[in-house]
Structure prediction request, 120 residues.
Amino acid sequence: MPNTALPHDHGQPIEQNLKSMPKESDFQTVADIFKQLCDGSRIRIFWLLCHCEECVINLSSLVGMSSPAVSHHLRQLKNSGLIVSRRDGKEVYYKAADTEQAQLLHRMIEKMVEISCPSS
Prediction:
């Protein structure tokens, strides 16, 4: 980030923080990952895939959705790098990617459910 003269000096060392601020494109990457959280069905599918490897037909049954709807969510998750797939004959199996981002998102989902939906 270029040197920016701030209009008001509030006595905070913000200029030092700006030197280490990530690029704008880095923030967009994070936003793209967080976009996956905008749909409860997609979060549920992702959560399932953090715990098992499964095909579209079985996922459809588990979440009570049509195969095309589940496939749509799987495409979104795969494009964001949160899940991976493998083919075995005619069947395609999906699971959570073994990445730090996927693991962090999984932990965050579980913690948010825990604190937002306490058991009675």
User: Anything to note?
Assistant: The first strand starts at residue 54 and ends at 55. The chain has six helices and three strands. Residues 100-116 form the longest helix (17 residues).
